[in-house]
Amino acid sequence: MLGQLVADEHDTAGTAQAKGAGREGGMAPPASHMCFTRTHPEDAMSRAFVREPDADTPADPLPEIPLPPPPNPVTARGAARIEATIAGLEARLLDPAAADHAELRRRLRYWTARRTTAQITPPPADPGEVGFGSRVTLAWPGRGKVTVEIVGEDESDPAIGRVSWRAPLAAALIGAARGETVDAALGPGPLTLTVLAVQNDG
Q1: Cis before 71? omega within 30
Q2: Beta-carbon neighbour count of residue 59 at 10 Å?
Q3: What is the pTM of this model?
Q4: Which member of 27, 72, 98, 123 has the lowest number of beta carbons within 10 Å of its beta carbon?
Q5: What is the pLDDT of residues 183-198, one digit of tens each?
Q6: CA 9, 10, 12 angle in degrees (round to 5)?
């Protein structure tokens, strides 16, 4: 499911991802790779901190933080981060001495929306298949062994190897298996990478 979404996203961007020998271009994970959508009664509480505009109260002057298009898969760690971020923003809004309430409210609206759409998504059931949540060790030309983890957009942090599932590198890797070679569009030309190891233990 998520693999096909990546393929669709990648095709829309107009970037072809060439897969290595033995792959047929299909990127959909097995049926057991399920997404779980959570509902949050706490969202009503979060909205209590967000000022609704009326005739006497001007709207916050700050533009909304752009929301990525759906879907919104997250790891369990990513879901916990969303909860912690919302709790922190709510606590700061209760402090009358806190500066820039408009910015805090804007951020709270963003994270509340992201919590509403978040889908906790486990790694593939196949221990050798790359998918959302996988930690993948690659043979990277000029860099040696490089390990990356495929995560949600709000979790992405390339400096520590966490790559958004929408990124070109993740798009090239999802659906691959240990021992396969993929071509990733990461520069002026495709970069050939070999999947050395896959870790799907969540």
Answers
A1: yes
A2: 10
A3: 0.72
A4: 98
A5: 998 888 789 999 999 9
A6: 65
